[in-house]
Amino acid sequence: EKGGFDHFMMKEIYEQPRSIRDCMRGRIYPQQGRVQLGGLKEYAEKLKNIDRIIIVACGTSWHAGLVGEYLIEEYGRVPVEVEYASEFRYRNPIISEKDLVIAISQSGETADTMAALELAKDKGATIFGICNVVGASIPRITDAGVYTHAGPEIGVASTKAFTAQVTVLTLIALYIAQIKGTVSQSKLITLLTELNEIPDLIEQALKHNEEIKTIAAKFKDARNFLFLGRGSAFPVALEGALKLKEISYIHAEGYPAAEMKHGPIALIDEEMPVVFIATKHSSYEKVISNIQEVKARRGQVIAIVTEGDTEVKKMADYVIEIPQTDEAFLPLLATIPLQLLAYHIALMRGCNVDQPRNLAKSVTVE
Ligand code: F6R
């Protein structure tokens, strides 16, 4: 049942090339530069004229929502707000018929997310769902939606469901761009051609597993961890920290790299491992100066870098390479080594990676 792996989590991490392919199947036509989302077809006109999108979710799904915010704003040019479902529902939010509220939920059963959607529906908003479990409560009450098709996720820590959620949000961002014409046809062709290759690139990223295991051995006894990234790598940092804390019980925090100097820098000493997402994208140089700030205080730097990088390698204590990709798809690749790092550290600490203490796969209490 674990397909030759010791744990469901590892099986599910390794399934990602396949689950992402399944998620994109029949939805992208790279040569034509076209995205087709059957579930949203009737809402094309609505999406063309929408003024604002509100995403509601909890936990890992909320992190996917944050990645979605970057992508939808960048490509679809629609303002997006991402809310914790539990906060949104209790504060008399301002929503109307003009709004589109999208719930993201692997299980489709999370009580707070469900309640946030019901509230939005009562206020007349259009409601969409991005869910993994077919026929769950959330997809049953939404006006429309897109399934992630990641297949059953057994490990309590979400892995393949997260990358499938990010894939769906990428498709939605490009679909809105296509409908509104905010991205040229030729650019859509380039982007979709590259997106189509992401499963193969994830395959390559997974090949660094042994190195990641070696790094995990060095840091398994750490008391704290910081994860830093900028742009769409910031939610990836949050997700890396959440994975580590939930399965290894090491205290970890994710931050936008630039926020480090506004507080967390005080924590840095030789005992503090800091994981940077330092790939060759728009904020590369800025991230490099953040790495220097950590090194100047003797922090231990583990950097996720673009294959062939030499500059970060000179500064970081450890580097993990991921293949070069367009910045739009960086979250899909950069997440992989962080999942593996959390897995190996948890295992080395003797933790139950598939069923961490105090956690349930689906949170149906408020
Ligand atoms: C973390 C994790 C949780 C869930 C959260 C929402 O690995 O799995 O944070 O993401 O409980 O669950 P869903 O997506 O089912 O609504």
TrEMBL record:
Chief localization: cytoplasm
GO annotations of cellular component type: cytosol
Keywords noted in UniProt: Aminotransferase, Cytoplasm, Glutamine amidotransferase, Repeat, Transferase
Domain of life: Bacteria
Catalytic activity line of the entry: D-fructose 6-phosphate + L-glutamine = D-glucosamine 6-phosphate + L-glutamate
One GO BP annotation of this record: carbohydrate metabolic process
Limits of the SIS domain: 43-182, 215-356
Record-level Gene Ontology MF annotations: carbohydrate derivative binding; glutamine-fructose-6-phosphate transaminase (isomerizing) activity
Top EC class, one word: transferase
Protein name (Swiss-Prot/TrEMBL): Glutamine--fructose-6-phosphate aminotransferase [isomerizing]
Native source species: Mucilaginibacter arboris
Gene of this entry: glmS
Residues of the full protein shown: 246 to 611 of 611
